[in-house]
Every structure is written in structure tokens, then in C-alpha cells.
Specification:
CATH topology: Nucleotidyltransferase, domain 5
Radius of gyration: 16 Å
CATH architecture: 2-Layer Sandwich
Strand order of the largest sheet: 1-4-3-2-5-6
Structural class: alpha/beta
Helix content: 40-55%
CATH superfamily: Ribonuclease H-like superfamily/Ribonuclease H
Number of strands: 6
Number of domains: 1
Shape: globular
């Protein structure tokens, strides 16, 4: 594993190919209260790029250009949250998207354990550490442990997408998954506008 740290913006000229794994680290899990602190990315080549945001300005043209590119698929786990955070702080609508958590729920129907650690362990035989998940991502300086944790969350998403796509095809659910992925920007917008706890499709 190789981790490249970037302060404020992604370095220019990095080629992520046709799909980039994306994750975010925030000060908490509230779209209203908590700020975007870190965006991490990987081309699935064993290298991760960790971008620490300049909070308050979020001027990062290289990162925004990459994330806004409609020709590059963005692979995320629980994309609903990351899509909303990136929409709020970077003004970018992530599309197209592949969400490995949605894919897990559509294929691993024999379990209710769909966290990244559980999915990666079962499908890839890789054990992820979550020790830094609740650390202070708003700190001025990130620790080596934080950087390693951030990197680990994106390094395996390409492999998960490949495995899950095979199963989605086998089960005849790939089109359904794609429809769910395409809806994520709308779901994120509803979350940002205050409908995060309301099922608007429910009868009551």
C-alpha cells in the first residue's frame, strides 16, 4: 500500500482511469452540523491519495474536476452520505456512481451485516481495521494511523465492485442496482433539504 498526502487539493495530472474509488472523512455524521475534512481516492492500483480539505474555502479545482467528470465512475461504500457531503461542500454532483453497500444489500440477502469491514472480509478475505473511524478528522495534522485508515477505505472498492457486479448479473439485479445508484443524487438532495428521516414513499 502506498499513501500520497495532498493538502488542500489533489495534485494535477493523476490518472484514475475509468473508475475511481472515493470516500470521505467528516467531523461527524450530521449533514447539518459536521464539516467535510478529508477526501480519499484510489484507482484500484494499490495506491491511495488522501486530500485534506482547506476547511472554510474548499477551493480544490483538480479534485472537483475529477469528481465531476461524467466519464469516470465513482465507487463508494454507503454513497448516500458521501454524495450529500460532496454536494454540500464541493458543489459537485457525483455521477455515475457504484455503491458497494447498496450492491451488498441487493446480493447478500442472507445477512444484515453490510458494513465495509464485513463485506470486504467475506468477498475478498481482507480484514480492515476501523480503529481510526471515530478519530478527530478536523485536526490540523493527520496522524500516520489516520492516513492509513483513510487509504484502506478506498483500496479495495474496485475489487468489491467486480465481485458484486458478477453476483448482480447472476441474480438478475444489475439493472435494479443501476437504477438505485442513479437515484442517489436525488436521495442526497432530499437528505440535505431535511427529508433524511422521512420515507416519502411510505403510505403515511
Amino acid at each position: 500500500m502506498s499513501v500520497h498526502f495532498h493538502k488542500g487539493d489533489l495534485a494535477d495530472g493523476i490518472d484514475f482511469g475509468e473508475a475511481v474509488a472515493v470516500d470521505t472523512e467528516t467531523q461527524g455524521l450530521s449533514l447539518v452540523r459536521d464539516q467535510l475534512c478529508v477526501v480519499q481516492l484510489s484507482a484500484g492500483d494499490g495506491e491511495a491519495h488522501v486530500v485534506q480539505m482547506n476547511r472554510g474555502s474548499y477551493e480544490c479545482p483538480n479534485l472537483k474536476r475529477l469528481l465531476a467528470d461524467p466519464g469516470i465512475e465513482k465507487i463508494l461504500h454507503f454513497a448516500r452520505f458521501d454524495v450529500a457531503m460532496i454536494r454540500k461542500y464541493l458543489g459537485i454532483t457525483l455521477a455515475p456512481v457504484f455503491c458497494t453497500k447498496i450492491a451488498s444489500k441487493l446480493t447478500r440477502t442472507y445477512t444484515d451485516r453490510h458494513g465495509l469491514k464485513d463485506v470486504t472480509r467475506e468477498l475478498l478475505g481482507v480484514e480492515l481495521s476501523k480503529q481510526q473511524q471515530s478519530s478527530d478528522w478536523g485536526a490540523p495534522e493527520l496522524s500516520d494511523a489516520q492516513l492509513a485508515y483513510a487509504a484502506s477505505d478506498v483500496l479495495h472498492l474496485h475489487a468489491l465492485r467486480a465481485k458484486q457486479t458478477e453476483t448482480l448479473i447472476r441474480e438478475g439485479r444489475l439493472d435494479l442496482a443501476r437504477a438505485c445508484f442513479d437515484f442517489l443524487p436525488v436521495r442526497a438532495e432530499l437528505d440535505l433539504l431535511g427529508w433524511d428521516e422521512t420515507d416519502i414513499f411510505a403510505h403515511s
